[in-house]
Design brief:
alpha/beta; Spore Coat Polysaccharide Biosynthesis Protein SpsA, Chain A; four-stranded mixed beta sheet; two-stranded antiparallel sheet; 8 helices; 36% helix; 21% strand; globular
């Protein structure tokens, strides 16, 4: 995105501010996986850097940093480039967690959305640390190693249109189209 994606503006707010606003009704702490960067964060957000051994190892490194920093039993994982996800969907993911389900995420159009997920912190912390230690950098195989549930098309229908809800803003063109 030619710069720091989290700091890009969309409808008058940074992508980080959109993320904070989505999760704020559900969380009393909002941690930002900052990697090795020093990002200026909006109010109400706290940076958590990757562990030195995992810097540059992708989303799982940031997820592990957040899981190690939180004091809560459950956590949401949300990429900052998904600003249209309904808070009600994030709540559903959290509500689906149980003693028998340690991870939830969505799949639509044949694609997994592993960076919009809910986790049982204790179990996920071990699974993510183990994946990184074994060189696994992909998120879905890590989530699949946990007792999990994936919301499919039928369960996501009330959040339609899904193309809008899961619009992933990866390029300046995506961002400009979303501004429209």
């Amino acid at each position: 995105m030619q710069g720091e994606k989290p700091l890009r503006m969309l409808r008058g707010k940074t992508l980080l501010e959109h993320t904070r606003d989505l999760v704020a009704p559900l969380a009393d702490e909002v941690l930002v996986a900052s990697g090795a960067r020093n990002l200026p964060l909006p109010a109400g957000m706290q940076a958590v850097p990757d562990a030195p051994a995992f810097v540059g190892r992708g989303p799982l490194a940031g997820i592990l940093a957040g899981l190690q920093a939180t004091r809560h039993e459950r956590a949401l994982v949300l990429a900052c480039d998904l600003p249209n996800l309904p808070t009600a969907l994030l709540k559903r993911l959290l509500d689906m967690l149980s003693d028998d389900c340690h991870c939830t995420w969505c799949r639509h159009g044949g694609h997994d959305e592993p960076l919009a997920a809910a986790l049982n912190v204790m179990h996920a912390r071990g699974a993510v640390a183990n994946a990184l230690a074994n060189g696994v950098l992909k998120v879905v195989p890590c989530w699949e190693s946990l007792p999990h549930r994936v919301l499919g098309e039928a369960e996501l229908a009330e959040f339609a249109p899904l193309e809008r809800a899961f619009a992933n803003l990866n390029t300046l063109e995506d961002l400009e189209r979303e501004q429209g």
